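debug: dumping io for the single-chain case to check the tokenizer round-trip. Nothing else runs in this session.
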Amino acid sequence: MQTKRMTFNSRWLPYALLAPQVIITLVFFVWPASQALWQSMLRQDPFGLRTTFVWFQNFERLFEDSHYLASMKTTLIFSVSTTLLSMSVALLFAVMVNRMIRSQNAYSTFLVWPYAVAPAIAGVLWWFIFNPSVGILPYILEGFGYDWNHRLDAGDAMILVVVAAAWKQISYNFLFFLAGLHSIPQSLVEAAAIDGASRTKRFWTIIFPLLSPTTFFLMVVNVVYAMFDTFGVIHATTEGGPAQATNILVYKVYRDGFVGNNLGSSAAQSVILMVIVIALTVVQFRWIERRVNY
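debug: decoded output
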């Protein structure tokens, strides 16, 4: 089998084609990351007049801070819950739409629309729905004897932010799951049906294993989304409350840095958050990918 190689007339043309991406990576990732790493080793006085190089003291203080450790636990619960909820609902919708012969495109369009909503807007929408004073869901829950109040109850607040963040991501997951279902050969499913396999058994033994590459990809994307892109949802709904019950790591970086003006600690937290996401991605690609059937 012969392979074709692209040849360039100019020696510098390949570098010119790569230059825009390299420049964007340097300006928007490498440079901010290096600045955060440098800032994490500095400490300023309360008035910002003097800066002291303190090496790793900011990191040591973080891991001795009970509030920061609680924020890490909150982030773990929030990320896992958001990922599971958004992916499971999206998979359910994708399977249901994939069975439709008519109106499949219309339903797909309606399900994709929420992805165009900004995270802050999504947070405000669900804040109104769950508002104890004017929201419809607290009114319905009150009829079942449950007094909903995310302003006072930590569990209610976590449910609110998880639902709002997952709702925002369902559309993205739905598109990839639907594309994955379309790529599965129908002959395999029809053969299993002829052999007498039930619809549930066909899904778990044929369809879901063949969706493992899509599921693996979405799992990585959703974990990163839950840890980074949900700042707007938290800020618009609970602002980390009540009693820091929904104060995830990315929101704590904002509160300590921009509200508390503790830039050194905030930079150290951003470095730790970046390391956590990189480590999770490496673990997922190194060990979990081995169980993926391509």
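debug: round-trip ok. The first helix runs from residue 13 to 39.
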